[in-house]
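Hey, sorry to bother you again with one of my protein questions. There's a protein on my desk that I can't quite get my head around. No rush at all, and the record is pasted right below.
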Amino acid sequence: MTCTRCNGLMVVDDLVDLQESCLPMWMCGLRCVSCGNVVDPLIMRNRMIQRSGGLRMLKTGVPVPAFAASLKATA
């Protein structure tokens, strides 16, 4: 696979997130050996949503079902 930023070589890399959770989170992703660009499954999903125009659908608002008004959150 080639990098979308610099067309360099992308290699499989183990990504560890130490800051966002109380336990280290591990996932497999791709890293460019030339520029260091990282692509993981979440980044790929978000880019697919942007390309498909799904983000516009989220901003316009989805009609809420009639029964949703009768639901109440209790804590």
